[in-house]
Amino acid sequence: MKELTGKRIGFVITGSFCTFSAAFAQAKRLREAGAVLTPIFSEHAAKTDTRFGAAADRVAELEKICGNKAIRTIAEAEPLGPKNLLDLLVVAPCTANTAAKLANGITDTTATMAVKSMLRRQKPIVLAVATNDALRASAKNIGLLLNTKHFYFVPLRQDAPEEKPASLVADFTRLPETVEQAADGVQIQPIFI
Fold first, then answer.
1. CA angle 180, 185, 189 (to 5 degrees)
2. Coil, strand, or helix at residue 147?
3. How many CA within 13 A on the CB side of residue 61?
4. Which of 32, 54, 62, 79 is deepest in the core (most CB within 10 A)?
């Protein structure tokens, strides 16, 4: 992985709770490569306890990895773009709900405000999609985002095609190289693996 020393990256977490561990592992890799990470949590990700862990513990875990306090409100996320606080934004995991809002210009959560704020300055947004309906109801939103400037996708694959034929999950291990290329305005290929 290319050195990312000094690269200011926002790391947004939305509600695909089963992928938090994979996302956090990549946040750790970005930090080890020298990136300065700012954790950002959607409201649901910051407050919902699940079988994958207590919300407060997950927030504390990512804050420790990043070495910074988490942004958890729309008001805290809004200045990211106007004040030019970040170079790039990662949404990992990016749920179908968040992708739908982004594709349709809806800004009603901390996560979507962070993205909107960064797009104001035309900064790269890296999406690590994780959803059980990517090849059904969410396909149109993913398609819109694939064709929208400044959005870059971490390569995706079907995670369990026999049990969940419409499910796609990003290959989180490819997140750092996707970030490197997105920083240069290039979409990593192939997108679908």
1. 70
2. coil
3. 18
4. 62
